[in-house]
Amino acid sequence: MTSFIWNKFKKMDYSLLISILILAGFGVIMVYSASYPISYIHYGDANYFFTRQIQWLLIGLFFFAVAAAIPCQLYGKLSPVFIFISILLLIIILIPGIGVERNNSQRWIQLGGFVFQPTEPIKLFMIIYFAYFYSKKQAYINEFKKGVLPPLLILGVMFLLILKQPDLGSAALILFVCGIIVVCSGVRRIHLFILSSIGLIGIIYFAFTSAYRFERITSFLNPFENHLGSGYQLVNSYIAIGTGGIWGAGLGNSVQKLGYLPEAHTDFIMSIILEEIGIIGLFIVIGSYLFIMIRGIRIAKNCTDMFPKLLAIGITFQIMIQAVFNLGAVSGMLPITGITLPLISYGGSSLLFTMISVGILVNISTLTNNTG
């Protein structure tokens, strides 16, 4: 067993590993810079969020190593258990006293002093389930009812339960990532067209039939129209980005984090990065994500077995799409959805399960001759 684990760690993609560690380390630095004023105001400790981010990163590194060492096929065999746990979590979160409500959304579960967001593990669980199902149904991939439909029914249930929180951003993210796995599995084009049409219509319907979701989605179109209300966050994000310019105001010198920009250390941490470091910070972040995407696609391409191939694709694009959702929101190019920036934003459950996900991706790299 020891030799098996040692051989896996010798074969892993170390360039991918290093890029992940650099991004996570950069995130810890920026979480401290973005959070120390609000940490001191609310908790009397300027290191409050910084300390917890380091703790979660250390826990994440441990589970990263575990995820990188476990035989990859075991994840697929456990996928039915993961789906059961996912549905159970999404039901439990709706129970008063267990589900925690913040900012008009009930997206967290509190057990004692521990609070976590169930959609974080569910993102990974759905990727594993979709990758495993479609890898095992290649012989029936052209038969819609037998080879395509079953996981989509599960996805529909998950989508509706997550909307109950309400959390359209996470629901859409899971929908897009699972859709990419379906595309890469070899499903017929006519089936893809039908499914994508249904998915798009569904997102539009649920987005525009709720006053709360409609306001969140449309407020980014003209935030200055209600700059003290629904457009407040985006307007202050613009101020942070504009203040930073090319070189930034200097690390630690943000003004917007002093109570002007809500969620400065979570959803809008990129605004603080741009205010303090300028375009250099943008290059660091986007360059790191692009490198992870390139390595992830290369790992998937070099897989001979369909399950790890689809799993690598799902994990890679989950990180990329989440980053696009976040960066699009802080720049006003997409609606604000409450999606965090992977490996950088503050958040224990987000950081933990992102580390587990990339641990699995590094695990898959040991199954290939990925030396490029």
How many helices? The count is 15
Shape: globular
Estimated structural class: mainly alpha
Task: Count the E strands.
Answer: 3
Task: Identify the notable features of this structure and list them briefly.
single chain, about 375 residues, 3-stranded antiparallel β-sheet
Please tell me about this protein's structure:
With 372 residues, the protein is mainly alpha-helical. The chain has one domain (2-365). Helix content is 68%, strand content 4%. The protein has 15 helices and 3 strands. It has a 3-stranded antiparallel β-sheet with strand order 1-2-3, with no helix packed on it. Strand 1 and strand 2 form a beta hairpin. The longest helix has 30 residues, at 14-43. It is globular, with a radius of gyration of 21 Å. It starts with a helix and ends in a 7-residue tail after the last helix. The model has no long low-confidence stretch (mean pLDDT 88).
Short note summarizing the structure:
The chain is mainly α and 372 residues long. It has 15 helices and three strands. It has helices at 2-11, 14-43, 48-69, 72-77, 79-92, 119-136, 144-163, 168-184, 189-208, 211-218, 232-244, 269-277, 279-301, 306-330, 348-365, and strands at residues 99-102, 105-111, 114-116.
Helices and strands, with pairings:
Layout: H1 2-11, H2 14-43, H3 48-69, H4 72-77, H5 79-92, E1 99-102, E2 105-111, E3 114-116, H6 119-136, H7 144-163, H8 168-184, H9 189-208, H10 211-218, H11 232-244, H12 269-277, H13 279-301, H14 306-330, H15 348-365
